[in-house]
From TrEMBL:
Catalytic reaction equation(s): guanosine(46) in tRNA + S-adenosyl-L-methionine = N(7)-methylguanosine(46) in tRNA + S-adenosyl-L-homocysteine
Gene Ontology molecular-function annotations: tRNA (guanine(46)-N7)-methyltransferase activity
Residues binding S-adenosyl-L-methionine: 51, 76, 125
Keywords attached to this entry: Methyltransferase, S-adenosyl-L-methionine, Transferase, tRNA processing
Amino-acid positions noted as binding substrate in the UniProt annotation, renumbered to this chain: 129, 159, 203-206
Catalytic EC class: transferase
Domain of life of the source: Bacteria
Protein name: tRNA (guanine-N(7)-)-methyltransferase
One of the Pfam families matching this protein, by short name: Methyltransf_4
Family classification: Belongs to the class I-like SAM-binding methyltransferase superfamily. TrmB family.
Length: 256
């Protein structure tokens, strides 16, 4: 680990808005604040919104600025990334922001039933090889149901045609109500000013995709508590890239 990362981790240990519970920790020490984020951390009764895979926390912090009466929690396993958003939130005295460093695979260990109203997935890894690692898979939707309110909102903002297409099939297969769906967010007519303001928050990775001329895709849908969720049985063309200025990982052309 580089000296810079070590310094960030050491400083982040002093951040009052960061909670670090990787799997090795949570397996030994239960998270006592589960179901009690409002009263024990935020000290209010405002709604809670999560950003899963928050990276540097641009969306978490950006949304917190726009909505001071809503509580936002950014979740990521990469502490060096979380450091940026957490430090910024502290410097701006944003008391409606927290960050949780943990694996999203165990996210349901940190929130109680009906504790969260919305989930944001911003530029998640499309995980083209493994459906169970995709943050919009039924594997994760079933976990989200443990703490998301009935018909709570899930937002997907992505550059990945693969992940967007997969999510559309998953939503259609399970008849989940779609409130907005566009394959070219910044050239979509009819969005109100408030929605444009929210969706106009750019992350570090989003700026890279826009620079490359890629369309930004967005979907907002509801997740009911009832009904068995079924994976779509379809093959989807893979993205022809993996990350900024790098070629795709797989030699395959399609995947389920």
């Amino acid at each position: 680990m580089s000296k810079g990362k070590l310094q960030k981790f050491a400083e982040m240990e002093t951040f009052k808005n960061v909670f670090q519970y990787p799997f090795s920790v949570i397996s030994e020490v239960p998270f006592d604040m589960k179901g009690h984020w409002r009263e024990e951390y935020f000290h209010n009764s405002n709604p809670i919104i999560l950003e899963l895979g928050c990276g540097k926390g641009e969306y978490t912090v950006g949304l917190a600025r726009i909505y001071p009466n809503i509580n936002f929690i950014g979740v990521d396993i990469k502490g060096a990334r979380i450091y940026t958003g957490a430090k910024q939130a502290l410097e701006e005295n944003l008391t409606n922001v927290a960050f949780l460093r943990t694996s999203i695979e165990i996210i349901d260990r940190f929130f109680g039933p009906d504790e969260v109203e919305e989930i944001w997935l911003t530029f998640s890894d499309p995980q083209m090889k493994n459906v169970h690692k995709r943050l919009t898979s039924t594997f994760f939707m079933n976990r989200y149901r443990h703490f998301l309110i009935d018909n709570g909102l899930v937002h997907l903002k992505t550059d990945s045609n693969f992940l967007f297409t997969y999510t559309k099939y998953m939503v259609e297969k399970n008849h989940l109500p779609v409130l907005l769906c566009t394959e070219d967010l910044y050239h979509t007519n009819g969005l109100d000013d408030r929605t444009r303001e929210i969706l106009g928050i750019h992350t570090y990775y989003e700026n890279q995709w826009i620079e490359r001329g890629l369309n930004i895709k967005y979907m907002k849908f509801e997740l009911p508590h009832t009904g068995e969720l079924v994976e779509p049985d379809v093959e989807i063309e893979l993205d022809n890239y993996r990350s900024y200025k790098r070629v795709k990982r797989s030699s395959l052309d399609k995947a389920k």
